[in-house]
Design a protein that fits this description.
With 245 residues, the protein is α/β, with parallel strands linked by helices. 13% of the residues lie in helices and 19% in strands.
């Protein structure tokens, strides 16, 4: 296990050691995920976003704000798709990239990644408030908190998930738009395809958090890796030419 300050083999980024080994939790304990067969390998546990299930109740926002490590600030984004035509909202948490761009562009080496892939908020003694991470994140997740001059973001409730507990937001979501469990449980209880590979221009991004795709057909703006879009969005960026066959 590398210690704090060791160098990541993929280049410069440093890792935080996994300080707490997850106990073997069993189904039936409130808010717990069954990690019995997944210790010490917990790669099968997945945090899932199904944006089509969001009902805009803001329970996740309230629960996230109760996390003591966030100092009372909610780190979850609840976005409105198109306020003029729909009330649809979508939740957005940190996707916890395998090779996080936010950490790569941080000049102060303030953003750490745990051994099990959780990208954490910036370290207060190191963060210089430059907002490089805010601008570089392909998912638009990090928040620069002006009041404390520091970047903060979703850390997947690491104090909870490292102990086998469900993240706060997923534990209160009534529609399970935010869901935490094993892939086997997802296949048994849910529909849709789990996607965690994305393409942003020339950048391939693989994430720890997965999103649910119900329509497997490629679209004009498709960030899912390996799926060719119907046409180049640059040819008709505002959709003025109408749908294409």
């Amino acid at each position: 296990m590398p210690e704090l300050g060791s160098t990541h083999p993929n280049g410069g980024r440093r890792l935080l050691p996994l300080l707490v080994d997850a106990p073997r939790a069993r189904i039936g304990a409130p808010g717990r995920v069954d990690l019995g067969e997944l210790t010490p390998d917990r790669d099968d546990v997945v945090f899932v976003i199904d944006q089509s299930r969001c009902i805009g109740c803001n329970a996740c926002v309230a629960a996230c704000g109760e996390c003591s490590t966030h100092r009372g600030e909610s780190m979850i984004h609840l976005d409105h798709v198109d306020r003029g035509s729909t009330v649809q909202t979508v939740p957005m948490v940190c996707m916890h990239c395998e090779d996080p761009t936010c950490a790569e562009v941080c000049p102060a080496d303030a953003i750490k990644q745990t051994e099990d892939g959780v990208v954490q908020s910036s370290l207060k003694p190191r963060c210089i408030g430059c907002s490089n991470c805010v601008n570089a994140c392909p998912f638009g997740v990090p928040k620069y908190m002006v009041e404390i001059d520091q970047m903060m973001k979703c850390d997947m409730c690491y104090d909870r998930t490292s102990e086998g507990l469900t993240p706060m937001c997923a534990s209160v979501c009534p529609s399970e738009a935010l869901w935490y469990g094993t892939r086997a449980e997802f296949a048994e209880r849910r529909t849709g395809t789990l996607i965690n590979d994305f393409q942003f221009g020339q950048q391939h991004v693989r994430t720890k958090v997965a999103t649910v795709v119900h329509d497997a057909q490629p679209g004009p703006l498709d960030a899912v890796l390996g799926r060719a879009p119907q046409y180049r969005w640059q040819d008709d960026p505002f959709g003025l030419e109408g749908p294409r066959s």
